[in-house]
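Narrative of activities, Objective 1.

The group set out to show that a structural description can be obtained from nothing but a protein's sequence at a throughput compatible with the screening campaign. Below is one input-output pair from the validation batch, recorded exactly as produced.
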Amino acid sequence: MLTTLVPMVLVFGVFWIYPLVSGAWGSLTRWQGFNPSQPFVGLENYRSLVGDPIFRTSLKNTFVYTVLYLPASISVALLLALAIEATGKLRMLFRTIYFLPVITSVIATALIWKWLYQPQLGLFNQLLELVGLPRQRWLQSSSQALASIALYALWKDVGFQMVLFMAGLSGIDRTYYEAARVDGANRWQMFWRITLPLLQPTMIFVLVTGIINSLQVFGPIYIMSGAQVNSPPGGPNNATMVVSVYQWQTAFNELNLGYGAAMGIVLFAIILIVTLLQARLLRTSWEY
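Output recorded for this entry:
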């Protein structure tokens, strides 16, 4: 028993506890790059965050991205799961097709979508012209960039959420549907009265994990937001600047690691609150 617990405790301590404690301490110091001295400054970094307009913008953009991405992602994933479950023998084929983007490299797919969004030669604008609609600036527009990246993330991640919903659907006893058919229920009534209530634990899990992933979004923003050559991520005009990207720029470009650690702790606190809400919702769902 002890030989099993010791490696687990060591791994947990080295890869979870130590980074958390180190980051929390670093957020209370003036940690500048490779400078070994880390003078203690208390809550100065957090007070600076309150007055930092770029951090406030990044926090707002992070929540806006979550609102743009998550409801659409959950809705599409559930519809795909229901549609694929109804295909019978072709279920495995369609599940594989929709899951392929999930296991594909973020760098490769994001670069492809960045080309698709290109205003002059991109495929999306060419399709718009074919149907008589005006070209769009997509990633080069302050009002469209964040939604454009959220659309890519929807395409990239929806397969994972779809698989979770399919697992939830497979766990529903078919006798409920047979009894409902005997009572004369139609498909909409069976979905609303049987499928949706029994999918509640899966729905909560997908919702909360989706929120956590959205709050931590980095790769798509970092790769796609620099629409112009040599332009920094987070553009245009900080329209796609999210907390994780601003933290990366501050900590690793400017080597202001203490300030970046403070951003990480704030983001960690938000994610922790969401996780605690998840536990409460799941407990309520299981009691129901």
